[in-house]
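Fill in residues.
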């Protein structure tokens, strides 16, 4: 057990204000805060009240001012095009200040929203940082979402400007973004004043009067200085899946976010100024926000932006090539990526082709790391493999194994122990703590440390209802699991409709809403089922309207198309079955849990509340017809 961790953890809970005030010394403030933690509106808390700062200044300018302008800030490597590019801190400052000038030219100022719809290119990070420079609020939308999802975000965030790339690149496929944007703007009520387009040679977008060319603008733009904002002002909105089809716009502040992320780079990941850190995620997810862009740059590290996949671009050695080429010290990816590599290169032969002498540690998060994947990675990579657990809402790790404070023993299946600032508890249905080792809802005692979500954009009441009301005095994570006697946190499943597909967070409720649009579908249910590569994938159950006598296969194919075109390819919705009826309780509630257990081939007992038990047998037969290992345990 690590003394450093124990000490820091106890101190953070005994006196959170002193703990985080000390961490805040790592940030340059325009004006110091007058109060570390404001609890007057509890359960809503605000950190560093009265303080003023600029996040972009802390991420870029202060490193240049400290004489580190020539240090690499951002390395771009596209396995899709072969492009490689490096920006020093001075170069990043030059281009970010100019892009801030471009945005200001369109009237973007403090508090205005800017949507960024871009793949993994440096300009995505530059656009985010330019917004931060102006005190504007960015909202990055993941490229794997379709027009409808983009339209919902446009209407909620009401951006003055949208910044996009002409395309993203997926293996064997160019994803043209401009038609998706045009369709989204057609569907949305809100119309942005301007769109700024980064033209990529792989697909040049057709411009309209509203569109402007990134390069033409930036060449002519004056640099813009950093604008001081309140610590409590919003830095960004990041939409994430909830229970319904309507995404939740998680809001992150400037001050608490900068303090927590700067602190976490050293304490949690063990990296510091000049170290090369690589999070192989996407800027559209929270991992990309926190650990491709803000965390490494706030700490003065070098960050890597990689466009490509862990396998097939060109092979399962892509990650090892990047680690070797850039001297990556610590890397972060999702367990699904490790599973994909293991499947393609089970003996780890490709690892041996690279010089990995500077690679010290591997982090995984985004979904539970199953022990088999963990052990394979530990054995083949030859470095510690650290699972840590967090969410879009928390912005950084709730539990993990803090390298900078003192690493402790890894327990397979656990996501480490609670990180400083997080008082993690497991509660039962009655809201009382369960016994050690018993499963329940995982919650965090309020206040949450700096960096956690401050509200939901446009929906403060929804924030309270979704996270704070169910267990008064606690933040409800939406995850279920247990904590063992040594304090290790085991995150086992969700308590809501969220599923985790290849490390991507999706709502089954949103998929059901999309399916309901099919004219022949009367009713449907979607559940996540186990998948050896992606962890979970969605499976749809469709009941047709009376009198529909079309072929079930055609309706299934059309349904798959509908989900792809409304939510996007990232939903990975590829399987559905047409069933006569859905199993329901006598009060009419669909038994989704039972459906999932049948589809996963798990033992189940017929629920006492079911209105018609025979239906489960019929569904098991249908699932077997599409190759699922459904075992009928219905008579147990
Ligand atoms: N833009 C457009 N389409 C995208 C996209 C993007 N940014 N990202 C994914 N998609 C598409 C894919 O092309 C695929 O389309 P297809 O159905 O036509 O094949 C679909 O969405 C599903 O993508 P994905 O789930 O990523 O599957 P995959 O087979 O392409 O790759 C993995 C599988 C495991 C290699 C990949 O999911 C992976 O690397 N996952 C790690 C995820 C991660 O880092 N998550 C962040 C949390 S830390
Ligand atoms: P996201 O908000 O997209 O980052 O997804 C967060 C969700 O992913 C969490 O609520 C968990 O359900 C899951 N998750 C993330 N990291 C882990 C982990 N290390 N172990 C188990 N589940 C995880």
């Amino acid at each position: 057990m690590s003394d450093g961790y124990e000490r820091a953890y106890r101190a953070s809970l005994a006196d959170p204000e002193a703990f985080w005030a000390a961490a805040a010394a790592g940030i340059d403030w325009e004006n110091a805060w007058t109060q570390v933690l404001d609890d007057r509106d509890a359960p809503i808390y605000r950190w560093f009240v009265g303080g003023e700062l600029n996040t972009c200044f802390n991420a870029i300018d202060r490193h240049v001012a400290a004489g580190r302008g020539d240090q690499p800030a951002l390395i771009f490597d596209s396995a899709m095009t072969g492009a490689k590019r490096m920006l020093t801190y001075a170069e990043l400052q030059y281009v970010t200040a100019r892009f801030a000038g471009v945005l200001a030219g369109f009237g973007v100022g403090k508090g205005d929203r800017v949507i960024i719809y871009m793949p993994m290119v440096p300009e995505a990070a530059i656009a985010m940082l330019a917004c931060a420079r102006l005190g504007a609020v960015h909202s990055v939308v993941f490229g794997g979402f379709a027009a409808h999802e983009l339209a919902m975000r446009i209407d909620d965030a009401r951006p003055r400007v949208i910044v996009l790339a002409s395309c993203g690149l997926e293996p064997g496929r160019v994803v043209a973004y401009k038609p998706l944007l045009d369709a989204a703007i057609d569907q949305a009520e809100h119309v942005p004043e301007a769109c700024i387009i980064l033209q990529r040679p792989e697909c040049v977008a057709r411009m309209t009067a509203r569109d402007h060319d990134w390069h033409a603008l930036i060449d002519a733009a004056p640099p813009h200085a950093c604008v001081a904002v309140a610590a409590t002002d919003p830095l960004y909105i990041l939409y994430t899946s909830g229970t319904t089809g309507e995404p939740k716009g998680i809001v992150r502040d400037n001050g608490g976010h900068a303090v927590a992320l700067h602190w976490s780079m050293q304490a949690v990941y063990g990296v510091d100024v000049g170290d090369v850190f690589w999070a192989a995620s996407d800027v559209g997810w929270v991992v990309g926000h926190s650990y491709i862009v803000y965390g490494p740059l706030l700490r003065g590290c070098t960050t890597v932006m990689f466009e490509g996949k862990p396998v097939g671009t060109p092979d399962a050695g892509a990650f090892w090539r990047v680690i070797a080429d850039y001297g990556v010290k610590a890397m972060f990816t999702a367990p699904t990526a490790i599973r994909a590599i293991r499947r393609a290169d089970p003996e780890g032969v490709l690892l041996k082709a690279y010089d990995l002498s500077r690679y010290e540690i591997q982090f995984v998060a985004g979904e539970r790391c199953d022990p088999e994947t963990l052990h394979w990675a530990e054995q083949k990579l030859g470095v510690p493999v650290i699972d840590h657990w967090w969410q879009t809402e928390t912005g950084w790790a709730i539990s993990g194994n803090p390298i900078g404070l003192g690493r402790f023993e890894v327990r397979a299946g656990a996501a480490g122990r609670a990180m400083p600032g997080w008082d993690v508890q497991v509660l039962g249905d009655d809201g009382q703590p369960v016994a050690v080792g018993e499963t329940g809802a995982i919650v965090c005692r309020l206040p949450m440390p700096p960096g956690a979500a401050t509200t939901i954009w446009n929906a403060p009441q929804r924030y309270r209802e979704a996270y704070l009301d169910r267990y008064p005095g606690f933040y409800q994570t939406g995850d279920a699991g247990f904590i063992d006697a040594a304090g290790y946190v085991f995150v086992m499943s969700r308590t809501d409709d969220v599923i985790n597909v290849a490390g991507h967070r999706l709502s089954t409720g949103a998929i059901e809403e999309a399916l309901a649009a099919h004219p022949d579908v009367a009713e449907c249910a979607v559940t996540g089922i186990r998948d050896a590569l992606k962890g979970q994938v969605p499976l749809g159950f469709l009941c047709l309207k009376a009198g529909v006598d079309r072929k079930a296969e055609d309706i299934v194919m059309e349904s798959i198309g509908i989900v792809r075109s409304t939510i996007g390819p990232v939903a990975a919705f590829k399987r559905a079955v047409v069933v006569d009826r859905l199993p329901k309780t006598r009060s009419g509630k669909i038994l989704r849990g039972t459906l999932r257990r049948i589809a996963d081939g798990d033992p189940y007992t017929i629920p006492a509340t079911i209105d018609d038990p025979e239906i489960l047998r019929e569904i098991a037969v249908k699932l077997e017809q599409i190759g699922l290992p459904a075992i009928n345990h219905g008579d147990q």
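The chain has a mean pLDDT of 96.
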